[in-house]
Every structure is written in structure tokens, then in C-alpha cells.
D-3-phosphoglycerate dehydrogenase
Amino acid sequence: MKILIATDKPFAKVAVDGIRKEIEAAGYELALLEKYTEKAQLLDAVKDVNAIIIRSDIIDAEVLDAAKELKIVVRAGAGYDNVDLEAATAHGVCVMNTPGQNSNAVAELALGMMVYAVRNFYNGTSGTELMGKKLGIHAYGNVGRNVARVAKGFGMEVYAYDAFCPKDVIEKDGVKALDSAEELYKTCQVVSLHIPATAETKNSINYALLKDMPKGAMLVNTARKEVINEAELIKLMEERADFKYLTDIMPAANAEFAEKFAGRYFSTPKKMGAQTAEANINAGIAAAKQIVGFLKDGCEKFRVNK
Ligand code: NAD
């Protein structure tokens, strides 16, 4: 069996070494395609492989057509909107993600951005503290839970809304579970966004939802840019000089945000929530283990295209 790591943004070397160890211990061969610049390179590399480990790399119908021997694709990370699930299912290819492996890294970044914002982007002026502020966690999945854990350490009052997670599961963590996103945004001065990008959630963070946030509102987005209705967020920030937006996923309208909202808008230059050595290693090795489990034992835990 031949396993390919295809990453335009490569894993840390220590993660590749860990993946190699898992793959070779199973008696498989590992191939590496890193920092590729043309899709043609990916199409060529997938020709004879049985499994692929990717990060944010795009796996679409054309790649799946080229990968005649492919059985499984594992996205080392949580979001898998870069894989065409329908096409994968049509090609008989199993798709998995590695949930939870980078959650602490993303949560730490979210809290870091909150501190940065309440301290006025470290501009030398007096700011405020997170302690005592109401934090709303929009989607209580792996990242959301870690944000709750860290935020409690800061002394924040933590609320959450999740469309699918039962309220008693949320409340067991000492977090107040709310009934709707509307209630969450009305209640909390700070909202940390952790919904996946799906047909239902795309553009769902809009003017109607954000306008009722309390004074001194802050939205922190470590999820996806597609869930934000950018035009409506711009309109809201034009109307509300107290509103801050911090994001780990640069908006399409980054230049406009930066120009209009200096001092209350920040974007990382490229998505870096999961960019830690620990998250790299955890997600990469989990991907390798899941591939071995699938190819040897047919284990489909973490399959996302059921
Ligand atoms: P997860 O799958 O563990 O949790 C997602 C949660 O969203 C689940 O609890 C689910 O019930 C909930 N949910 C789904 N649809 C919803 C809706 N319409 N309304 C409310 N809740 C809804 O995922 P995670 O690991 O917590 O990651 C969350 C998202 O963050 C990912 O989908 C990914 O897009 C993004 N992410 C970004 C980075 C980064 O580098 N910035 C890293 C990891 C994840």
C-alpha cells in the first residue's frame, strides 16, 4: 500500500517523521508531495496511491478521477470543506477528519486574540480585562469546549449555543447553555465562533444576528470566513464604532476592513489556529493511525462521508 502526504503547507518535520513511523510499522510505503504550486503536480502524485493525508489541500472530482487506486483521504484537522464529499462517495473513497487534535491550539489563539483586543491591540493605552465578561461560544464542539475551559481560567462568564449538542452536556462543564444563536449574541459581549462551514451556516453570521450584541462587542472568528456575511459585517462596523472583529481567516474584503476599521479589526496573515508543533504532530499521527486502522481493519470511525 502506498500512502501520500500531499501538503502545499507542509507538516513540521517531526510530524512527518511520526507519520512515517506509523505507516512503515504497518508495512506500507510513504510518499511526500510538499509545497506543490501546480494542481498538475498533485494529479500526478495521486496516480498510484491508496491513501492520502492532506491539510487544507483541495480534493475535488478531478483529483479523485486521477487517483484510480485511492481508498481513503484523511484531512489532518477538523474542517473538511476542502474535500468534495459527494464526489468522494461517488468514487467509493472514504473521507475522514481528525477531530480534536488541534482544538487546544485553536482555543489558545482565540483567547490570545481576545486579550489583544481588550488591551487595545497593545497600543500603549489603558484597556479592559476579560475577567467577568460574558463569553458566548457559538458551537460547542472540540474547539468550543477548549475555549470554555481556558476562558473559565480567565474568570469569564461562559455561555454556549450548539444546534446539535444537548444542553445537559454543555452544562456539565459549568457553561450556561442557551436555546438559540440569537440569544447567545444578545447576551454576550464577546462571541467566539466555532461553527463548521456548511450549506446551512454559510453567510449566517449577519447583520440581524450581530446588531443586538451588547456595547463593546467583539466577534472572534477562528472558524471559517465563509460563515460571515462580510458585506453586512462591514455595514454593522460602520454603524457601531464599539464593535471589534478579530479573525484567523482573512476576509475576502481584508483591505476594506483594515482601512475602515483600524484599531478594531485584526486578521492573521494566514490561518494559523492549528499552526503549532503539538497540533501538527497530533493531527498528522492521528491521520496515519486512522489510515492504518481503515486499511487493515476496515475501521471507519471519523468517516465524514457516510
Ligand atoms: P467539531 O466538529 O468538533 O464541532 C463543531 C460543532 O458545531 C459541533 O458541536 C456541532 O454540533 C456544531 N454545529 C454544527 N452546525 C451548527 C449550527 N448550524 N449551529 C450551531 N452549532 C452547529 O469542530 P471543531 O474542531 O470544534 O472545529 C470547528 C470549526 O473550526 C471547524 O469546522 C473548522 O472550520 C474550524 N477550525 C479552524 C481552525 C483554524 O486553524 N483556525 C482549526 C480547526 C478548526
The two ends are 23 Å apart (CA to CA). The chain has two domains: 2-101+275-297, 103-267. The pocket of nicotinamide-adenine-dinucleotide is lined by residues 77-79, 99, 102-103, 106, 139-144, 162-165, 194-197, 200-201, 222-224, 248, 271, 273-274 (CB under 6 Å).
